[in-house]
Amino acid sequence: MPLVTAYHRPASLDEALDLLSAPERVALGGGTTLNADREPSDLEAVDLQSLGLDAIATTEAGRVRIGATATLDAVRRCEHLPDSLRELARLEQPSTLRTLATVGGLVAKASAESLLLAGLLAHDAQVELAGPVSGCSLAELLAAGLPPSSLVTAATVDPSGRTATARTGRTPADVPIVAAYGRRIEGFVAMALTGVGGHPVLVDVYDPTAGLEPAGDFRGSREYRLHLAGTLTARVMQELYP
């Protein structure tokens, strides 16, 4: 991890928020993001593991509440969630990192290629926050970024509906260039794509490329990614409406 100058382990959310109000302090959940950087820094780590944010449970409304420090492996093993979401959690990281990486870290990092974030979007994920803002939809948070002086405490999802996924990569083991995850509930379909912007996005199933401006790279040009967006959306729709 970065060569941090100090380590803090708050015992309450209020203490954590007070510590994180300083710009040099960063939240430490599973540590997989911080551990990717070995360079010296002026950062101070604020360890969240004593805050009791790792529970996964169903709510009275029938949703599933996933605590921010719940690991991806805990999501993979959670029987309250549909098999499709559990599979995305498995694919998100190798097994050695799934037991460390957290849902809160996943949301905060907002990786453009995160399959699990796409799945959470399609399952109407709502993010609970501590701080000035009490919460928002995952789609809003990804678009605007984490509000200043806020900390992700949980995400809730609707586990119901028929789901399907399609993805294209250079090899089956590679992170997909573009992936599509769809959820059908009654007459509505929520479709989320990865690899077509700065973060996973919800798209119109009838015009999935509208407003998309993906950046090309060595794996695929802008035009190729747009082509995949349309093709994979169509494949998912065929599975949702067999």
Summarize this entry quickly.
The protein has 242 residues and is of the alpha+beta class. Helix content is 29%, strand content 24%. Helix 3 (83-92) packs antiparallel against helix 6.
Features of the shown structure:
242 residues; alpha+beta; five-stranded antiparallel β-sheet
Kindly name the structural category. Answer: alpha+beta
Percent range for helical residues?
Answer: 25-40%
Number of strands: 12
Mean pLDDT: 92
Rg over alpha carbons: 18 Å
> Counting H and I runs of at least 4 residues, what is the number of helices?
8
- Biggest beta sheet attributes: 5 strands, antiparallel
Shape: globular
Strand content: 15-25%
Q: Report strand order across the widest sheet.
A: 4-5-8-6-7
Task: Produce the secondary structure layout.
Blueprint: E1 6-8, H1 13-20, E2 25-28, E3 44-47, E4 56-58, E5 64-67, H2 72-77, H3 83-92, H4 95-98, H5 103-109, H6 115-122, E6 126-130, E7 135-137, H7 138-144, E8 151-157, E9 162-168, E10 178-185, E11 188-194, E12 201-203, H8 222-240
Parallel strand pairs: 1-3, 2-3
Antiparallel strand pairs: 4-5, 5-8, 6-7, 6-8, 9-10, 10-11, 11-12
Helix pairs in contact: 3-6
